[in-house]
Amino acid sequence: MYSVYILECENDKLYTGISTDVQRRFKEHKSGRGAKFTRMHRPIRIVFCREFKDRSTALKVEAKIKRLDKASKLKLINEQTVVDEQ
Predict the structure, then answer these.
(1) pLDDT value for 81
(2) Antiparallel, parallel or unpaired: β 13-19 and 2-9
(3) Residue whose C-alpha is closest to residue 45's, from 20, 18, 26
(4) Is 77 exposed, middle or buried (0-12, 13-18, 19+ CB in 10 A)?
(5) pLDDT per residue over 26-73, tens digit each?
(6) Beta-sheet strand order (sheet of 2-9)
(7) How far apart are CA 43 and CA 37, in angstroms?
(8) pLDDT for 11 beyond 80
(9) If you ran DSSP here, which 8-state letter would residue 21 be given?
(10) CATH of domain 2-79
(11) Of 2, 36, 42, 66, which is the most buried if we count CB atoms within 10 A?
């Protein structure tokens, strides 16, 4: 299973990614071994996480979330809904 997750980071930033183990990946981000973005904007907590049956679907959803503006991402987080997988 692949998960799409959103992290709340310092400076009120949001980071979106995918992983097969979100908790492990979160620890990597916190330790500075994650992405360049999370080295610059330290992650605080996981605010959104959804599982998908395969990597392809997770990547498509991740890409759609990354294209959203911040207000739409916050709405997604607050409502804990999933963007269309298609």
Answers:
(1) 66
(2) antiparallel
(3) 26
(4) middle
(5) 999 999 988 899 999 999 999 999 999 999 999 999 999 999 999 999
(6) 13-19, 2-9, 43-52
(7) 9
(8) yes
(9) -
(10) 3.40.1440.10
(11) 2
